[in-house]
Amino acid sequence: MIGLAAALTALQSCKSKDVFDEEEYRQIIKQESPVGVIDPAQDWVTTRHYTVNVTVSDDMRAQQLFILAPGWQLSPYEILKKLYLHEAQSVTATFAAPVAVTQFYAVLYDGQTYRLKPFAASQTTVSFTSDDPGSARSSLAMKPQGYTFCFEDGMPEPGDYDYNDLVLRVTHQRTGERELKLAVTLAAVGSQTAMGAAMHLNGIKFSDIENVTTHGSEQQFVGDYPLQRLYIESDDTLQAARNGDAVIALFEDAHWAIDGYNINTDYGVILQRNTYNTTLSKTSTALQRSPRTVTFTVTFKEAAVLDRLTMDDLDVFMLKDYSGSIWEVHIPVYTTAQVFWEYNLPNVPILPWAICIPIDQFSYPLEGNYLGMYKDNILSGAYMEQGHSFGEWAANKTMAQDWYYYPTQNMVY
Predict the structure, then answer these.
(1) What is the per-residue DSSP string for 48-115?
(2) If you average pLDDT over every residue of the chain, what do you get?
(3) 10 Å Cβ neighbour count for 345?
């Protein structure tokens, strides 16, 4: 048997004399996993894709259609989809929503009044007529749809499964017929490993985008990086993936992005690789910083392309070095995307190195706490509430699908 690091080096290099032992890799990963038994059907997907056809009678003069999800604990409605109608009598709305949500709202807006009609997640049609226009409101509290992307830096080796090595919050809001605003917040860096990040727009071609502009902490995110680039070779904000899809470059270096830099005139740039916002106490290497946010305004060439985009098409991924090769850490549904770089990853049923939580204010674990642990029928970790735990969901994908709403307060940031 060869060691894990040697095995993975062999996996990366076809010239290596070593032979990758997948069974050994599987056993090492399984031994390190905080969940004893993982559902073989577990795909780690927390959202579901929906399509609903909405018909509107001619006399209603609707200008916009919204698809909303009810807010958690009386928070504002979340905008899952926004379409411009232009007197259309029938439109198809595609959207993504948390698996745990069972009811949505279709909302017509005529410039003055919002008209709401609830519909079940199982419905595929909604109809608005003057006889049944829906409940009317003069105003409506709504907020952009948001996700939290949590990463482990260990890939392809086992991690510590606290999912705070890199935490990015992303909100998605259509602000014009051809305009989309994506607010990206770097919330935490819990690793001393150099990491980059980018956002692949799955199925949206580079040629579909007219331009991308930024507002916010641009210097650290997409500005001129003072050190040698390793992960994202170009400093352009909008780039093309290997398959021609559009990619938004977020940052070359997470530590640079969250904390800036100091310049020493004799020795150049000094970049400290501390950890940020993963502990409640401040030490010399574990610091607190205000999260940094950049808003990317994406203008599409055609409104129809933006019409079909959903939150689940945002493939936010981390980039890292391992044994001299560049690896991309994607959420499971995009594991094989290989947006910028080619690499080989064994296909084994393990806890993922990245997970997408379909709320933008997810409470991620403090350093040293598992996201969830479930062994010998004992639940522990940051999400361990019986009936609503990460471990139960990992063991059975049909159970505890709302686990991310139930943190153990002294274990999360």
Answers:
(1) EEEEEEEEE-GGG---EEEEEEPPGGGPPEEEEEEEE-TT-SEEEEEEEEETT--EEEEEEE-SS-EE
(2) 90
(3) 18
Reported as type and span, the H/E element at residue 6 is: helix 4-12
Q: Phi-psi region for residue 14, left (φ > 0), alpha (ψ -120 to 50) or beta?
A: alpha
pTM score: 0.92
Containing 8, the helix (H) or strand (E) segment is helix 4-12
10-residue mean pLDDT series, the chain (413 residues): 51 48 75 88 95 92 94 82 89 96 95 95 95 92 97 90 97 97 97 96 98 84 82 93 97 90 62 91 88 96 97 98 92 94 76 94 96 94 97 96 95 97
Judge whether 30 and 349 are in contact, CB under 8 Å. no
In the chain, the N- to C-terminal Cα span, in Å, equals 40
Q: How far apart are CA 155 and CA 167, in angstroms?
A: 16
CB atoms closer than 10 angstroms to residue 285: 11
> Residue 91: which of 99, 83, 102 has the closest Cα?
83
- Separation CA 204–CA 43 (nearest Å): 24
Please enumerate in sequence order all residues whose Cβ is within 8 A of that of 292, keeping only pairs 6 or more positions apart, or say none: 185, 186, 216, 217, 220, 221, 257, 258
